[in-house]
Every structure is written in structure tokens, then in C-alpha cells.
Amino acid sequence: MTRPNAGDLPARLPPELAALEERITRCRRCPRLVEWRETVAREKRAAFADEEYWGRPVPGFGDPGAPVLVLGLAPAAHGANRTGRIFTGDRSGDWLFASLHRTGFANQPTSVSAGDGLELRDAWVAAAVRCAPPANRPTPQERDDCLPWTQAELDLLTEVRVVACLGAFAWDAALRLLAARGEPIPRPRPRFGHGAEAAIGRCTLLGCFHPSQQNTFTGKLTEPMLDAAFARARELAGLTPYAR
After folding, report:
1. Closest to 143 measured CA to CA, from 186, 181, 172, 165
2. Which one, of 196, 59, 48, lies nearest residue 114 by Cα?
3. Fewest C-beta atoms under 10 Å: which of 30, 88, 138, 220?
4. What is the 3-state secondary structure of 162-223?
5. Contact partners, residue 204, CB within 8 Å, separation at least 6
């Protein structure tokens, strides 16, 4: 089954990534997450009552040759769990893709459905946990059970040199991911912060506050802060600066 309104987007992936996407979307490893994502997809939010919800794990999305991996927490219950594309159809995604557009990673500033024409260049966006969790809080075990999917993606995204971690949860997941790949983790363990950097093996972790409403509504994260983080990601990845 393809994502709602996905058009021919999955066909653009290299065969190995397309096969991995298919495997990810069929995962039922975490009973609590399976029950929640499917319950939300059945009951729906009133504003989306006429839409077909995706209700499955959400694979990554973007440029298979990307040097920058943007790693979030998990799909939103009525965002990616509805649309089938990560950070699509919710307020966090509004902020994220607008910034990626301003900094040269996206061809448009909006992301409302899987077939809306959005394309990424030099960036791949994924979540540490692939299913929408209750209260947006996956458990440590669910995180660890899901990390092999990101590891498999990273094995195929051979050009990734920067992992932009949206929040402390993603930062911790990225450290665990790199440790599982055999990379030596510095001691003391690098701590998350907005603008924090940690060079580990072939990758540099870059910390950025998550564009959640609790951060954007309170001013903890502003548009210039988010843009500066992705501008720095371009610099760390060896990409040319982007000027609109």
C-alpha cells in the first residue's frame, strides 16, 4: 500500500532504499505503538474525518545522496501518522520545512501531504522512532527497538556527514546509533544543546531545539535560530552557503 496521495514518489528511490521503506512500513515490533497508531487512524481528528490515515510506521524522506540527515523524535499522531510522510501535516513540520526552504534544502516551504511536490536536496529527514507514540513519548525500549531501521537507512545513505538532531531524544538516539555502528563515543559523553557539535567517526552531530509548539510558541526556538542551525549543517557538510 502506498502513502495517501503519494503519487510516484516511492518509485524515485533507489531499489535498496525502496525495499527498506517497504520493510519499515510493515513493522509491528512494538505492541503499544501499533495499538496507538492504528487507534488514531481509525478514530481520527474531526478536522480530518474524511481523510484516509496512513496509520503505519513512517520511513525517511529526501535526497538519497544527502550529506545531511535531519533526525527528529517520532511521527505526530495527526501529522505524519495521517499523511505518511515525516513532519508533514503538523505545526512542527511547518517550521521545519520552511527553514529547510530558506536554507536551500527544500524546493518549497510547505509540507501538507505526501504528494504536494515537496523535494529535498542534500537532506534526508527521518525520526528516531517510526510510529506515533502516545503523548509523543516513546519509551527507551521502543527507541532501541526502532534504531535498527535508522541504522539500515544510514548504511544506504553513504554520503551522510552531518546528523542534525532535533531535540535531546534525537541526540541520544544518534549517539546510540553511532555506537552500534562501532564508532567510538567520546568521554565524557557529548551533551545536547542548541548549537552543540560532536565529531564522531565520519559524522558530526549538530544539536538543534525541536520545532515543537512548546519551543516555538514560547520563543525558545526562533526562525533565525533554526535557520542558523541548518546553515551550520551546510557548512559542516561542505556545501556552499545558500543565499536567497
Report:
1. 172
2. 59
3. 220
4. EEEEECHHHHHHHHHHHHHCCCCCCCCCCCCCCCCEEEECCEEEEEECCCCHHHHCCCCCCH
5. 161, 162, 163, 197, 198, 236
Global pTM value:
0.94
CA 41 to chain centre: 20
Q: Determine, yes or no, domain membership for 8.
A: no
Distance, CA of 197 to CA of 227 (rounded, Å):
16
What does the pLDDT read at residue 11?
45
Whether residue 147 is contained in a domain is answered as: yes
pLDDT, tens digit, 9 for 90 and up, residues 86-109? 999 999 999 999 999 999 999 999
In sequence order, which ranges of the chain are alpha helices (DSSP H)? 15-25, 31-43, 80-83, 91-102, 140-156, 168-180, 213-216, 223-236
Q: Which of 178, 210, 205 is nearest to 191 (CA)?
A: 205
Q: Is 126 helix (H, G, I), strand (E, B) or coil?
A: strand
Which portions of the chain are predicted below pLDDT 70?
Answer: 1-11, 244
Instruction: Give the C-alpha separation, 140 to 153, whole Å.
Output: 20
Count of CB atoms situated within 10 Å of the CB of 1: 10
CATH assignment at residue 179: 3.40.470.10
Residues 6+ apart with CB under 8 A from 53: 4, 40, 41, 42, 44, 81, 82
Range of the domain at 86: 14-236
